[in-house]
Structure formats: C-alpha cells, structure tokens
Amino acid sequence: MHGGCPVGTRYLEREREHLRHVLPGLEEFLAVTPLDELERPGSKALTAFRAAGGPGLVVPAEHGGRGADLLSAVRVQRAVGSRSPSLAVATTMHHFSVASLAEAAAASGGPEWMLLAAVAHDNLLLASGFAEGTTGQGILSPALTARVEGEGADGKIWLSGAKKPCSLARSMDLLTASVALPGPEGGAPSLAVVLVPADAPGVSVRPFWKSPVLAGAESDEVVLEDVEVPPELVVRTGVTEDGRLDRLQTAGFVWFEALMTASYLGVASALVERVLAVPKAGDAVRAEAATAVHGAVLALEGVARKAADGLHETVLADALACRYTAQLLIGRVAEQCVEALGGMAFLSSGDIACLSSACRALAFHPPARARMATALAEHFTGRPLRIP
C-alpha cells in the first residue's frame, strides 16, 4: 500500500493539504512510496524532505525560512507521521533544535541568526545530542563531557563522548548537544547548547539501531573524540543543576513535546484511516478510534495556539499533559485498530505491524511519564516546573 493511505477517505486531508502547501512535493512523494521503503535504512524520505525545503520549515521568514508557527508545524508532523513514522520522528529532532536556535536569536540578537539563515538557505539538517534514550538520566543531563581552556566567550571547548541513539546520525550537517560549562569565577556550572559540524575532526558514526521499527530515522551512535567547538557555535543558557528552565530551554521543550506528540498521533491516525476504509470493522469501533485521536489532536492544537502568546512553563506543563494523555490513548487505539482490521490484514502486509509498533514508541521519548510525576504534581499545586 503506497504511503500508508487507503483511497477515498477524507481523514487527514486538512493536514495533508497543509503539508502540500508549506512543503511542496513532500506529500506527493510520500503518498506514492510504499511504507516499507520509507521505513528502511537509507530511505529516500530525508532526500525528499530536503528537496521540499523541510529544514527551513520553522526558520523565521526574516532569516529565509518558511516561518511556520507551532500550530503549522504540528499539522505538518501529523501529516508526515501518517505517511512515514521514521521521517516524522527524525525531523522532529531537527525542528525542535531549529526552534530553540530561533528563540535564542530572538532573545539575544547574537550570531544565531546566521545559523538559521544557513539552515534555510543550504537545507541543513540538525541532529540532537541531548540525553534522550539514556535510562535514568534526564534530558537536561549532558550526554557529552567538555574540556575547557580559558574563560568567558573566548574560552576554547573540546567535546568527547557518545550519543546513542541519535536520529539523523548519517544525514546530519550539525549536531546540537548540551554540555556543562564552568560558572564565572568558579561559580555553579551552567548548561550550554553547542553545535558541532558533522564533518568536524573527531566526529564519527557507528551502527547502533537494530530494530526494524523506525529504522528510517537513522538512529545510530554519534561519537565525539576531543572535538573542538568554535565559540560562535556555543549558546549559553540559564539552566543550572536544579532543573529550573530558562526561556530557551522552555521553548525547546514545548516544541519537542508538541511535535513528537503530533508525529505519533499521525502514526496512530494512519491506523485509524485504514479502519475507516473498512466498513466491516463496524461503525462503533471506527467512530471510537477516530474520535479518540481527533480529540487528542484538538487538545494538542489548543496548546499550539496558546504557545503563540508566549512559551512559558504553563504552556510546557500543558504540552506534557497533552503528550502523556496521547501516549495512553494511542496504545488503546492501536489495539482497537489492529483487532478491527483482523488477522488477514495483519498477515497480508507488514504495514499494520509497522504502524502498530511505531506508534507506541512515544513512551520512549523524554521526559518519561513516571519521571515527571512528582514535578507535575508539584507544578499543579503551585510550584515552579522542573525537569528532573
């Protein structure tokens, strides 16, 4: 089945039309390409994403990008997720990194705008080297270690360590990562976001991802061995060891949670779409699955609209609540859809198994629901939101 879409349903048409409008050619490519081709290593999906100008989607228009806001990007990711789970997950890592840079540029007026312009003009892909995927470790915990010589903006930084899994490992142009840097005059260390060119001396990629699920996301291991980072590629944040977030990190988290949730709702939507195309599945099941996902989408779009008024911790808490609700809902909907489609549909094509497995992976992205339980409970009783 091409692109994972039955013919004749109106479901997802709004999102797909939006994708056709903002990234011309991508929806057309995904719609005619078999799902198993899109989900395998070496897929041409990322090439099509570049050709459509996807890297510049959330780059502000004044820097040469498409200027998509969070609501627009949420709709794009749901459409992409319904066609290729791997592409949606991989590009979410890019988009949230770019959105964080855009927030830094707007706040500081520093050189970040030149990077944004380069992303849009040259279709550069940014991978994320944050601590995602490390059991028991928070996303703010640096996955890399820094060796620093000198102080302040002119100090030299060398990075070592590894990030696994790291989506876009083989197609990235830049790796974004968090590092702990010494505070001024021996003060408390603070986090900084660094950008490392993929072709910098000391950067290498090793095989890591062995599962056939989301294999097209290029989630391999990126290794850094004493890699020097130019000062202009270091963005210092206001985050310290207690987990309190500054404006930059809050914005990044909102984008990450919203876009990742949209991506996996897109994958679940692909299953719902198949059920809607099979009347024998029964109206009750078809309506329940469709309305459950639609309700989660409406909630997520509400968060995205709220974000237009400012990216603060209340919006982040809303995004997390939306994500964890969707996470629970998606598992139930996937079970309903697989059962309704029946054993012959499952056996006759690998698409159903692929989508059913892929949509459950939302639970693996940070911060884990159990890890955030105390922080969210405290936030809803009036305390500042922390990311443990």
UniProtKB/TrEMBL annotation:
It comes from Streptomyces daliensis. InterPro entries: Acyl-CoA_Oxase/DH_mid-dom_sf, AcylCo_DH-like_C, AcylCoA_DH/ox_N_sf, AcylCoA_DH/oxidase_NM_dom_sf. This is Acyl-CoA/acyl-ACP dehydrogenase. It comes from the Bacteria. GO terms for molecular function: acyl-CoA dehydrogenase activity; flavin adenine dinucleotide binding. Keywords: FAD, Flavoprotein, Oxidoreductase.
